[in-house]
Amino acid sequence: MKKKFEKKLIIILLILSLIFTLAGCKDEESEVVNNAKISASEFLLDTHVNITLYGTEDESHFPEIFEEIERLENILSVHVEGSDLDLLKNNAGVKPVQVSEDTIKVIEKSIKYSKLTNGLFDITSGPLIDLWGIGTESEKIPTQDDIDEAIKLIDYTKIKINKNENTVFLEDDGMIANLGAIAKGYIADRVEEKLYDLGIESAIINLGGNVQLIGDKPDGSLFRIGIQDPDEDRGGNIGVYTGKDVTIVSSGDYERFFIKDGVKYHHILNPKTGYPVETEIKSVSIITDESFEADALSTSVLLSGWDKGIEMVENIEDVEAIFINKDHQVYITEGLKEDFNFDNDNYELTE
User: Fold this and answer.
1) What are the tens digits of pLDDT across the range 226-282?
2) CA angle centred on 311, ends 307 and 313, rounded to 5°
3) 277: which residues sit within 8 A by CB, 6+ positions away?
4) Does the predicted TM-score (pTM) go above 0.90?
5) Which of 28, 50, 74, 239 has the most CB atoms in a 10 Å sphere around its CB?
6) 3-state class of 196 per DSSP?
């Protein structure tokens, strides 16, 4: 009787061992699939757009994602013939133009930041941007007379929105609205919505300086994103941010510029002076929930300068930032102290 019991016990233990072994194999196989990642890139929005999806090997999602980015670019870029912004430019001082809800939303947010910065952030800086042409084949230092004429056309209060009819009107002939300082943020948020619609809950959207972290990695670990050293080529970092479910938007004078007679002219133009803005800030990275907000805020901070920029960020809830100045000092807002690992001997942290 005892031998029969022992024999049955051995059989039961062998069966349980086999079940756990098979379950372990299944879990391992599942983990491999869940932690898989695939990436794709296209040149859109005048930059290299990279999308990385985690937990899937289905590349059929990419065309739909890139189509959404291209659709929005064809609405919001002033450089695309027939876009809402192109139509606004061609009808400035003539008549209101019916536009998409996307365009209305971006222009409304732009006006909010124009008010916040007392006009330093102004999407009607289009004539000035075109005059300098920084980042294009026609970049040059304009004459003072041309700069003065362009400044006369910059005035966000002359953007008239009629939400009942979905129209926008630029009041003066020659006005140009350029959404380059804010559109990528809006598009990043729309792409995030698209990913959720496709059932993707773990991804990185990188729109060239605008990084969106969707969820965390499938194994529960956090994403690690390097913060660009403005004095180095792409890939050189001052440290690493670790987190999930946030956007990181970095802007600085290192992104687009040209050098003439030893002087550096970057693309962030002050609409009051007509020249590239001169502040202590070399770059800023805004970290928050909404890329739309972060994009506008990063440019506004750069235009406002070190002290006002820090004050601006610290007066907005749920927004953190990493500031780098021209003296190689780094300022990190309080909420990032545990999430950002500063590691660069060429810089020093400042309070």
Assistant:
1) 999 999 876 689 999 999 999 999 999 988 999 999 999 999 999 999 999 999 999
2) 120
3) 120, 268, 269, 270, 302, 303
4) no
5) 239
6) helix
Q: Do the Cβ atoms of 344 and 309 come closer than 8 Å? A: no
Q: Residue 173 — φ and ψ, nearest 5°? A: -60, 130
Using alpha carbons, select from 101, 110, 105, 84 the residue that is nearest to residue 169: 84
Please give the Cα distance from 121 to 151 (Å, whole number). Answer: 13
Q: Give backbone dihedrals phi and psi of 343, rounded to 5 degrees, phi first.
A: -155, 80
In angstroms, rounded to a whole number, what is the distance separating the alpha carbons of residues 40 and 33?
18
Q: Which helix (H) or strand (E) holds 204?
A: strand 203-206
Question: In one letter, which amino acid is 107?
Answer: I
**pLDDT above 50 for 14:** no
Confidence of residue 34 (pLDDT cuts 50, 70, 90): low
CA distance 122 to 111: 7
Phi, psi for residue 134 in degrees, rounded to 5:
-65, 130
Is 204 in contact with 192 (CB distance < 8 Å)?
no
- Residue 109 pLDDT > 60, yes or no? yes
Q: What length is written for the chain?
A: 351
Q: What structural domains does the chain harbor?
A: 78-170 (1.10.3980.10), 222-349 (3.10.520.10)
